[in-house]
Design brief:
The chain contains 10 helices and 15 strands. It is an alpha/beta fold. It folds into 2 domains: 127 residues, Nucleoside Triphosphate Pyrophosphohydrolase; 175 residues, Aldolase class I (TIM Barrel). α5 links the parallel β9 and β10. The longest helix is centred in the middle third of the chain and has 17 residues.
Length: 315
């Protein structure tokens, strides 16, 4: 087996989080003219973070001040197998190419969630572009607790305020007819505001109500032999092995928790942030932190490797 080349890759995000940077490989390099996320090889004895900071200074002339781990992907090119450690870079000093070198043919900012107009893009980056289209907040329904009408009113107000979360319809104890009506109402409301909806553990209902995908419970994930045929598929996980399984199935995201004690699972003490970070280290797909969280936990979650946060009561 050939040696794996460790690479630090930067997902550089503007302050509002809506745009990310791609760089074009210059003449004389393998895959010249292809677009990629900036970064470079991790040197012996160097941490991924240190390599990222060094490479962005050398390539773009900037000094990184805020960054956090996101996900890791392996890809085999004809010339090498690379392990790409993608980190989100959210703050830096200096202007790209102005305060220092620009070792690329070009750079460009693209809008998250939209099909890039740049071509060609290095093939290893396809899942990364889809991951960037994933909202950094998931809202999980609890119509069982507060009633369908009250929850829909709460969601409508949230969407009207400009938020665009991924919405998961859970509520497994509702009668089948009630759950179907509720799911259809959630999908109609979310789609009207440009948000996506996944249905927990019911592919047939997801198709019937026009949802964007399905969300697998940990039990369903264990029994899953191949990725369900939906645009968006995720899974609930409680340990690193389950996240690895979700990655093997090429799912789009995972939930890991509970991070903190929660009324839904009062018997669970929670992973804590160190446990969460250990559980999603090296993950190949975006991971939401779940359990006992509020919006104020977002920064802690991302600092420990989360894509974002999943909220049931805390929004």
């Amino acid at each position: 087996m050939s040696k794996i080349v460790e690479v630090a890759a930067a997902v550089m995000l503007r302050a509002d989080g809506r745009e990310f940077l791609l760089a074009q490989r210059p003449e004389g390099k393998v895959y010249a003219g292809y677009w990629e996320f900036p970064g470079g090889k991790v040197e012996p004895g160097e941490t991924v973070r240190a390599a990222l900071v060094r490479e962005l200074h050398e390539e773009l002339g900037i000094v990184v001040s805020e960054c956090s781990p996101w996900l890791t992907r392996e890809f085999t090119y004809p010339h090498a197998t690379v392990r790409l450690h993608f980190w989100r870079v959210t703050a830096w000093t200096g202007e790209i190419g102005i305060s220092g070198p620009l070792e690329h043919a070009a750079v460009d900012w693209l809008e998250r969630g939209k099909t890039p107009t740049l071509a060609p893009i290095l093939p290893a980056n396809g899942p990364i572009l889809k991951g960037l289209a994933l909202p950094e907040t998931m809202l999980i329904s609890m119509a069982e607790n507060i009633g369908a009408a009250a929850w829909l009113a709460r969601l409508e107000a949230h969407l009207a305020a400009g938020h665009r979360p991924l919405v998961q319809v859970r509520d497994k104890t509702l009668a089948a007819g009630q759950r179907a009506d509720f799911a259809a109402a959630v999908v109609a409301l979310a789609h009207r505001h440009g948000s996506r909806v996944v249905i927990n553990d019911d592919p047939a209902l997801a198709r019937d109500c026009g949802a964007d995908g399905v969300h697998l419970s940990a039990a369903a994930l264990a029994d899953c032999a191949q990725r369900p045929d939906f645009e968006w598929v995720g899974a609930s996980c409680h340990a690193a092995g389950e996240i690895a399984r979700a990655g093997q199935l090429e799912l789009d995201y995972a939930l890991l928790g509970p991070v903190l004690p929660t009324p839904t699972h009062p018997e669970a003490a929670g992973l804590g942030w160190p446990g969460f970070a250990a559980g999603c280290a090296g993950n190949t797909l975006p991971v939401f932190a779940l359990g006992g969280l509020r919006e104020t936990a977002r920064a802690d979650a991302m600092a420990h490797g989360a894509h974002g946060i999943a909220l049931m009561r805390g929004w």
